[in-house]
User: Fold these one by one.
Assistant:
Number 1:
Amino acid sequence: MRGMLSPSLMCADVLNLEHELTLLDDLGVDYIHLDFMDNRFVPNITLDTGLIKASKKVLKNMKRDIHIMAFEPERYFDRMDIGKGDIVSVHYEACENLDEVLGEIRRRGASPFLAISPDTKPEVITDWFEKIDGVLVMTVYPGFAGQPIVEGSFEKLSAVRRLIDESGKELLLEVDGHVSWDLCKRMRECGADIFVAGSSSLYQAGLDLSEAVERMNDLVK
């Protein structure tokens, strides 16, 4: 399977979001990464539910990759208009009723992913293989862009990939956090399938977005 890009909209030019969404769609990018934070699970607020919902109207082929960093994520599903074609990642650490939340994502026709933060052990994912389509591994602490990669992240990615492969399940492995030019290829070698690209690669100041997408695609192919 080829590597797939999921550019992070929280790192884009906030005054030109519709233009950048359209450009990425026209470039054949697979996903657009949409971060939602509640200022409780993580100490920040990024894209609001209205913007995440509105993005659906702009996209033609590119799919939404919605990452909910919030307690009680199901409270926001209607406001985001979650449905067919969406990836929806919820955090293992934030859901007391994880089974119900994953089931509701599936019921809406979306693909449930389980997100795990840097301090969470890889082994927790094995209890949920029957309920999910993928795992999102955070290689920085959730909440803010531009952080350095957490020590041990490559070993963790490899461990998650191994657990997936040993299960015989065809689950996707997504990596989110400091997916930089010099690290993304190694992340690919660790088994990552989807790459959340932000301020350390695609959205570096002065880079042409179309050229940056081409370069990243070549690195993670």
Number 2:
Amino acid sequence: MTATLGDFYTGRPTEDIARDLLGHELIYTTPAGTLSGWIVETEAYLGEKDTAAHAFNGRYTAANAALYDAPGTIYIYVLRGYYMLDVATQAAGTPQGILIRGLEPHQGINLMRQHRPKPDPDISNGPGKLTAALGLQSKALNRTMLGAQNLTITPTATRIPAAVNATARVGVSDGSWQNRPLRYVVAGNPYVSASRKRDWDRINHGWRV
């Protein structure tokens, strides 16, 4: 991982990093071509104290070990048969991370449609959908660093949200953290999961122009 990319994940609260990831480009390079998209939805998970986090109460297993690695480490896990993409955000031993939940396609859209033959925006408006669209369907990159192999996220935003909304996380239904506003979305973007059509910005998709 480059120093610039490493700096982005170092020395800041996970909530700030999750918000700031909106508009960065997720890029996956494959033998068939490069696929990418702008991040439009993230969720922050805050480690041992967070009742919804995989590391709640200091839980450490082979499955979630990536969260305890250096910031910028890729954490891939399977939930209900879908691959999920997370990034560790804090110093090694502090198991906090960010789930990438929504992606607006940019490069390789035809490949994405082959991988996941669904109409837009259903192709990548959810965490399991976006990994399917990218063809990221294994744990081969788990516990590797962003940029070390063929998966990276740009260190700076290549599009700027006109507005960002913070909401409760999706699917968190128990514990004292269920209503905390730790989900960040590009307001009006159609590729935000479970968004309402009437709220979509159909012209600019919520990006600043």
Number 3:
Amino acid sequence: MSELVRFSIAMPADLLMQFDNLVARRGLAKNRSEVIRDLVRESLVSEEWDDPDAEIVGTLSLVYSHHAHDLQSKLDHIQHSHHDRIISSMHVHLDAHNCLEVIVMRGQSKLIRTLAESILGVKGVKHGNLTATTTGKYL
């Protein structure tokens, strides 16, 4: 870790009160400085993720009915076609009808986003979400 540098921040009292509530919700091990560092890192990672050429790691979570015709075969085909970008996947039976799949992917932001959109666009996928982080310097 690099040397810590102190600096001052001025903000309206009501905003500070809301921020202190956020700090309190983050737990006993967090203080204002740590939460500000977290927020800055989060912002920098988000900005890096917006770069289409940035290397990212993403988790795609999707829910679908296992009764949907040929859906699992289509999902498997897409994943096998992109085996170089898919690190791992996990399949969970939520109930008698629904499944959750979590797919871990790695690659250029634009390619991972396109891959996630192609999987989420398969007929029968009820909903899903791509969550990404970078493999870059802010972690």
